[in-house]
Write a structure and sequence with these properties.
The longest helix is centred in the first third of the chain and has 44 residues. α1 runs parallel beside α4, α2 runs antiparallel to α3 and α2 packs parallel to α4. The model has no long low-confidence stretch (mean pLDDT 79). The protein has 10 helices and no strands. It is mainly α. The chain is 72% helix and 0% strand. The chain is elongated and about 65 Å long.
Length: 275
């Protein structure tokens, strides 16, 4: 239990998580409310969808940042981790569970903060009450998303430790970069059923669906084009399939992490600074 407590404390007090996962994301929230919304009509229906879309993007970016934190934590612990797994009672399964336990509270806390800020900012700007309709669902999506980001980051960290630290600065930011690419890709491109293949778009669509508490069109770009009232008459995102996609990705990456973390050997941090 001490390791789990340590992980929770580490993630909740990490200044980089608060800086990149909250302050930096809030900058984009303000841009979305007061700058990028200049072409939005002053009607509640499109404003509500627009707010839900930005909530999805903001939480996705926050979860991507938490993933960076998870990768960094594991990376800096490898010096002792390889010895503890071989010569103590610590098991790879318990260690991975501890890392996940540390990110779940962070996902909830940061998710609640981002939702509150988006709601207050967008409601004030548009002049409508744009409150989320299903807060428990948003919290569930944040937990699922945070767990997936952790499993992905753990997997990426194992790649670093199995190869070389020279690329770690780039690999660290892969979860955040993919969050941007797939998040905006879902909003502006017709991805069709490929939405379910990408866990990033699955997270994004779930957050939007729970924020609105109504079905989200598979082709969300039709909403961006202004067809707010009729777009949902077509094919919509299945939350069951989106959740299933997230669970499958997380389980697969978790088992890979548990299996390969046993063979991790220490790689000096200085290796990452060598040109």
């Amino acid at each position: 239990m001490r390791l789990i407590y340590y992980m929770i404390k580490r993630f909740l007090t990490n200044k980089y998580n608060w800086g990149y996962g909250v302050a930096f994301v809030l900058f984009w929230v303000l841009m979305g409310a007061y700058v990028f919304s200049s072409q939005m009509p002053l009607e509640k229906t499109p404003d509500y969808y627009y707010t839900a879309a930005w909530t999805g993007m903001a939480i996705l970016m926050t979860l991507g940042t938490i993933g960076i934190g998870a990768t960094a934590v594991v990376s800096f612990q490898t010096g002792s981790l390889s010895h503890l797994l071989r010569f103590s009672k610590l098991t790879s399964k318990y260690y991975v569970i501890s890392v996940y336990a540390g990110t779940i509270p962070s996902s909830l806390v940061f998710g609640i903060l981002i939702v509150a800020c988006v709601y207050l900012t967008f409601s004030e700007h548009f002049g409508f009450n744009l409150a989320p309709s299903n807060m428990p669902g948003l919290l569930l999506a944040s937990i699922l998303g945070g767990t997936f980001m952790t499993s992905l980051s753990f997997f990426l960290n194992l790649i670093i430790l199995k190869t070389s630290r020279k690329m770690e600065q780039l690999i660290f930011f892969i979860p955040l970069i993919l969050s941007y690419l797939f998040g905006f890709g879902y909003l502006y491109l017709n991805l069709s059923s490929a939405v379910y293949l990408s866990p990033f778009t699955a997270i994004d669509s779930l957050i939007m669906e729970f924020y609105l508490n109504k079905s989200i069109p598979l082709n969300f770009s039709s909403l961006v084009d202004g067809n707010y009232l009729t777009a949902t008459g077509g094919t919509v995102v299945s939350p069951v399939l989106a959740i299933a996609s997230l669970v499958v990705w997380t389980v697969v990456l978790t088992f890979i992490g548990i299996y390969f973390v046993r063979s991790v050997y220490y790689k000096p941090l200085e290796e990452g600074r060598i040109a």
